[in-house]
Design a protein that fits this description.
The structure holds two protein chains of two kinds. Chain A has six helices and 13 strands. By secondary structure, chain A is of the alpha/beta class. By secondary structure, chain B is of the alpha/beta class. Chain B has two domains: 2-161, Rossmann fold (3-Layer(aba) Sandwich); 185-304, 3-Layer(aba) Sandwich (Rossmann fold). A nine-stranded mixed sheet of chain B has the order 9-8-7-10-6-1-4-5-11, with helices on both faces. In chain B, strands 14-13-15-16-17 form a five-stranded parallel sheet. Classes of the chains: A alpha/beta, B alpha/beta.
C-alpha cells in the first residue's frame, strides 16, 4: 500500500504579517513558520493507518515551497513517514490552488497511491480547493472535512464534520483523497530518536519545471492589511484595577452584573 | 450576467445560508437561477427558475450526483457565476464543479470591489484582492458576509432534473449529533468562553468559576475543545453552537472567523486578550488587554467581595 500526505508550511498565526514589495503576499522576515495545523492531523492519521497495517504502507510526505519548508517536512517525517518529496519553489505564492493541485497530481499520476491525505485547508490562504482538485485530476474519490477515518480492505468509513454539531458518516472505496479537519486525532510529538532517524530518510528534491502546473486561473491583485474597527472601549493596566473597571462597565451597560 | 445559486438542503429543509446567496447575486447585479436537491416543499419563494433534483431518489449529500446536477444546470443556463455558501457542502462540492468545468474557483468571498473579489487570509489578519482568468467562475461565499436582501418572493418555475453519478459512489450511512452533555448554550444569558490563550487545561477551572459567578455557562473555542480541555458540546462557532446571550466574555480567544460567526450576535461582548490586535477586537464592545490568568482571578475576587 502507498500513502501520500501533502503538507504546507505556514506562518504561525500569532505572528504579525508584513506585505511584500510586490504587494501580493507576506514577507518571510520576522515570521515564525510551522506545519499547517490541518496537515498535522493528516500526517497523524496516515501514520496511525501505517501502524494499524503493521508498518507495511509506504508513506511519502510532499510539500511545495522555498527551502524553509524542509523544516516542516522533517517534523512531519519524524512523526513516522518513510520519505519526503520537496518541490522547491520560491514562487509558490504566485501559483493558485489549481496549479498547486496540478503539480501534485502530475507527481502522483504514475505512482499508484492508494490514499492521499491532506488538511482540509491551509491556515494562510484557506481555499480548501487543493485536496478535491487533486482527486479530480487523478480521477480518485474524495471525502473532505474528516473528524473520523477507518480503513479496512480498501474501504473507507469516514466521519465528515458539518455545521452545528452535526456529523455525517459515509462509506467509499480507495483510491481516494481525504482531507482532515482539526481535532480529528491527537497529533504526536516527534520523539528525539525519531527526529534523529529523519536524517537517514530520503528527502528528494524536484524543480517546479519537472511538473505540469498549467496557467493560473486566479490571480492575486493585491494583499493588504484591512482597516480595522477598534473595540468600543479598551481597558489596559493593573489586573485588579481593570477588573473593577470592567465590572463597572458591565453594571452600566448590561442587566447581568448588579 | 447570470448567477447559478447552489442552495443547500439537509434532511428536507432548505438551510438559511441559501438565502444569503440571493443577497450576493444582488450585490453582483447578476440574474439569479437556482439549483438544489430537495422536495417541492423545500423550494423557496423566488421569481425565477429552480432546477430541482429529487431528494427521494438522491438521498442526503452525495458529491458525485450533486456535482452532475450542478453541471446539468450549468449546461442548461450557461451562467457566468456558479455560487455556493462556504460551508461543509459548498467547500466540498465547489472544487469538484470547478475542476469538471475547468474554470477558476474563488473561495470564501467576503466583499466585492469593482467586479473583483476580496478574501480573508491568515486568520483575517490580511486580505487578498483576486481576479479570475476564466469567463465562468465558481465562487463560495463566506457565511454572513452578504445578507438576505428580502427578495424571496414570487413563485419559482421548477424544473426537475435527474443526474447520474460520476463513478465514485459514496454511501451515506447517517447523521450523528455531537453530545452536548445536556447544556443548551443557545438559552444561556451569559457565556464565558475559554480560548487557546488560557494557556493550559488547569486554567479551564477558573473560567468555569467565572461563568458560575456571573450566573452563566462555560463555553469554549475550537482549539480548547480539540485539545480535550472542554467537552465538544460546549464549542461555540460554526461547527459548534451559534449563540446570542446578553453577555459573552471571550477569554483568550483570538477570534477566528468560524468562532466569530457563532457569537457575534451577542448583545454585549467582552474580549480578554494579551494581543491588542486580535481579530476579536473588531466585534468586542470592551477589549481588556490582559493575561486571562491574571484578570480572571481579579474578577473573581471583585465578584466574591
Amino acid at each position: 500500500m502507498k500513502i501520500l500526505v501533502c503538507v504546507k508550511q505556514v506562518p504561525d498565526m500569532a505572528s504579525s504579517v508584513t506585505i511584500n514589495a510586490e504587494g501580493v503576499w507576506y514577507v518571510d522576515e520576522g515570521l515564525a513558520f510551522r506545519l499547517n495545523e490541518y496537515d498535522e492531523y493528516a500526517v497523524e492519521e496516515a501514520v496511525q493507518l501505517k501502524e494499524q497495517l503493521g508498518g507495511e504502507p509506504d508513506l511519502t510526505i510532499l510539500s511545495i515551497g522555498p527551502g524553509r519548508v524542509k523544516e516542516a517536512m522533517r517534523r512531519a517525517m519524524a512523526m513516522g513517514a518513510d520519505r519526503g518529496v520537496h518541490i522547491v519553489d520560491d514562487e509558490y505564492y504566485k501559483k493558485d490552488s489549481h496549479q498547486i493541485a496540478s503539480m501534485i497530481a502530475d507527481f502522483a499520476k504514475d505512482k499508484d497511491f492508494d490514499l492521499v491525505f491532506t488538511g482540509m485547508q491551509s491556515q494562510d490562504r484557506g481555499s480548501g480547493q487543493v485536496g478535491p482538485a487533486i482527486a479530480a485530476q487523478l480521477d480518485y474519490a474524495c471525502v473532505t472535512t474528516l473528524v473520523g477515518f477507518e480503513y479496512e480492505d480498501g474501504k473507507i468509513t469516514a466521519t465528515r464534520e458539518l455545521e452545528g454539531g452535526l456529523h455525517a458518516k459515509v462509506k467509499l472505496a480507495a483510491p481516494a483523497v481525504v482531507t482532515c479537519q482539526l481535532g480529528m486525532n491527537t497529533p504526536r510529538y516527534p520523539t528525539l530518536p525519531n527526529i534523529m532517524k529523519v536524517k537517514k530518510k530520503e528527502l528528494l528534491e524536484f524543480s517546479p519545471d519537472d511538473f505540469a502546473s498549467g496557467d493560473a486561473l486566479v490571480v492575486t491583485e493585491s494583499m493588504y492589511v484591512p482597516e480595522k474597527k477598534g473595540a468600543g472601549l479598551v481597558l489596559e493596566g493593573d489586573a485588579g484595577e481593570v477588573a473593577g473597571k470592567l465590572l463597572d462597565v458591565l453594571k452600566e451597560k448590561t442587566s447581568i452584573v448588579k | 450576467m447570470k448567477a447559478l445559486l447552489v442552495c443547500e438542503v439537509r434532511e428536507g429543509k432548505l438551510l438559511e445560508s441559501s438565502y444569503e446567496l440571493l443577497g450576493f447575486a444582488a450585490a453582483m447585479e447578476a440574474d439569479p437561477v437556482m439549483v438544489m436537491v430537495g422536495t417541492e416543499d423545500s423550494v423557496p419563494d423566488f421569481k425565477g427558475t429552480v432546477y430541482l433534483g429529487d431528494v427521494a431518489s438522491m438521498g442526503e449529500y452525495n458529491p458525485g450526483e450533486h456535482k452532475q446536477l450542478v453541471l446539468d444546470a450549468v449546461e442548461k443556463e450557461n451562467p457566468d457565476y456558479v455560487v455556493f455558501s462556504h460551508s461543509s457542502y459548498g467547500w466540498d462540492l465547489a472544487p469538484r464543479v470547478a475542476s469538471a468545468l475547468g474554470v477558476a474557483q474563488i473561495s470564501e468571498v467576503v466583499e466585492l470591489v469593482d467586479g473583483k473579489f476580496v478574501l480573508d487570509a491568515c486568520n483575517a489578519k490580511v486580505r487578498r484582492l483576486v481576479s479570475p482568468k476564466t469567463d465562468r467562475v465558481v465562487l463560495t461565499v463566506q457565511a454572513g458576509a452578504f445578507s438576505d436582501d428580502g427578495s424571496f418572493e414570487g413563485s419559482p418555475q421548477v424544473e426537475k432534473i435527474s443526474p447520474a453519478g460520476d463513478g465514485h459512489p459514496m454511501e451515506f450511512l447517517g447523521y450523528e449529533e455531537v453530545d452536548t452533555g445536556g447544556v443548551d448554550l443557545t438559552k444561556a444569558e451569559v457565556i464565558v468562553s475559554a480560548g487557546r490563550g488560557i494557556g493550559k487545561e488547569e486554567n479551564v477551572e477558573m473560567i468555569r468559576k467565572l461563568a458560575k459567578a456571573m450566573g452563566g455557562e462555560l463555553g469554549a473555542s475550537r482549539p480548547v475543545v480539540d485539545a480535550g480541555w472542554v467537552d465538544h458540546g460546549l464549542q461555540v462557532g460554526t461547527t459548534g453552537q451559534t449563540v446570542s446571550p446578553k453577555l459573552y466574555m471571550a477569554c483568550g480567544i483570538s477570534g477566528a472567523i468560524q468562532h466569530l460567526a457563532g457569537m457575534k450576535k451577542s448583545d454585549f461582548i467582552v474580549a480578554i486578550n494579551t494581543d491588542a490586535d486580535a481579530p476579536i477586537k473588531e466585534i468586542a464592545d470592551v477589549l481588556v488587554v490582559s493575561d486571562v490568568t491574571k484578570l480572571v482571578p481579579a474578577l473573581l475576587e471583585e465578584l466574591g467581595g
